[in-house]
Amino acid sequence: MATPIEKPSILLIVGGGVAAYKSLELIRLLRKAEMEVRVVLTGAGAQFVTPLSLASLSGAKVYEDLFSLTDETEMGHIQLSRQADLVVIAPATADLLAKAAQGLANDLASTLLLASDKAALAAPAMNWRMWTHPATRRNLAVLREDGMIFVGPDDGPMACGEQGPGRMAEPEAIFAAINAALNRAQNPVDLLTGKKIVVTAGPTHEPIDPVRYIANRSSGKQGFAIARAAREAGAEVILISGPVALEAPEGVSLVRVETARQMAAAAEAALPCDLFIAAAAVADWRVESDAGQKIKKTGGGLPTLHLVENPDILAEVAQRAAGRPPLVVGFAAETEHLLDHARKKRLRKGCDLIVANDVSENAGVMGGDENTLVLVSAEGETTWPRLGKDEAARRLIGHLAQILAWREAP
Ligand code: C5P
Question: Taking the complete model, does pTM exceed 0.85, yes or no?
């Protein structure tokens, strides 16, 4: 593998789409990671974001015109394309992709793409009908063949009011893809430095008697991956886990518990925090009074287990009157009516975001290594593609870091 470039230079082409506002955040992430960013704004892109915003965030001149005399004398378009380590197109509109696939060079963006000798990474953004149109599919196949790398699009509600694949990937996902393309570590920036994060994970075991217990199939893999990703992003992480066969991720404080009540007490003790993520599959019920001794088979009939409800850790944290963490995230593992259940659950628990996943048997999520996550917030839903649990965790942490940053922004 090639050595990572110390201070990579990114040529960012901002196309015309509502998602262009997300490119402002992308520039912020790139600059924070000490990358140099030069922005090319297409005519359509300028309808959505201003050159001034882009110049302020990138700290450099924004290029718009192929035939600008001043630009050409300062830095010609060939030089502009050559000095970049990676060309990034975000948003990559259907039009930009079509031009690139055809090799057209009738404006600055398309000319740069044709003149470039570097890899190009595109974050497509368009209406789902445009994305699934045979013409776009053909263009994508050609561009992939030519070596273009793609990140996204995501599936979810669109600015036009329709729903489907075509939403531009979130800035931190594009940022991660840029790092991957440049052979840099996935999470080099300290997105969460100075933040404290509490994660619950794994199942709980609810004793019936000293040798028997009620449990579930949670492996804890997703929660542990989230804790690891948060630590890699610079956070102080307390991971509270029920019984699992996993080692503590490096640098993470692991509190091992058995029952829901122990998990609730550990969560309470871990507060305050900036972000609370409830990924545990907490048992909803426990046996009211577990037998002090092993229950014996007697001839006198079957034992009756009287169940009582366990504390709802997520709801208690999310509904705290004082000291509620600024961002509280829950999970919804469902086997049917995923979205409907997740939306209702978010309201019932009082958390900011529900990460829903399909755990029906054919989805192979429970104990498996992959997950398809749907993020349900007050703003709507976004479906991410099926990802490895580590990758899904990194993406989730990036997304949550961004929400925290937005909330803190003046
Ligand atoms: O109600 P349900 O168990 O489906 O909700 C799932 C979400 O609530 C998960 O985030 C889980 O960690 C959390 N939860 C909890 N305490 C419970 C039950 C669920 O924190 N007793």
Answer: no
Ligand 1 proximity of 278 Cβ (cutoff 6 Å): yes
- 3 pLDDT above the threshold of 60: no
User: Is there an atom of ligand 1 within 6 Å of 280 CB?
Assistant: yes
Residue 284: which of 308, 267, 266, 305 has the closest Cα?
308
The CA-atom distances, in angstroms, between 235 and each of 69, 179, 221, 228 are 48, 20, 19, 10
351 labelled catalytic: no
Q: How far apart are CA 3 and CA 15, in angstroms?
A: 31
188 falls in which pLDDT band (50, 70, 90)? Answer: very low
Q: Which domains does the chain have, with CATH numbers?
A: 9-186 (3.40.50.1950), 196-408 (3.40.50.10300)
Q: How far is CA 268 from CA 16, 107, 239, 272, 354, in A?
A: 47, 58, 13, 8, 20
User: Does residue 331 have its Cβ closer than 6 Å to ligand 1?
Assistant: yes
Task: Report the residue among 312, 358, 396 best suited for mutation to probe ligand 1: largest number of ligand atoms under 8 A from its CB.
Answer: 312
Query: Would the CB of 260 count as within 6 Å of ligand 1?
Result: yes
**Identified catalytic residue from 5, 135, 141, 160:** 160
Q: Give how far Cα 344 sits from Cα of 42, 207, 315, 338, Å.
A: 42, 30, 13, 10
For 217-253, give the DSSP string.
---SHHHHHHHHHHHHTT-EEEEEE-S-S-PPPTTPE
What's the CA gap between 288 and 296, in Å, rounded?
Answer: 18
Q: State the residue for tokens 């899904």.
A: 392
Which atom of ligand 1 lies closest to the CA of 309? Answer: 21
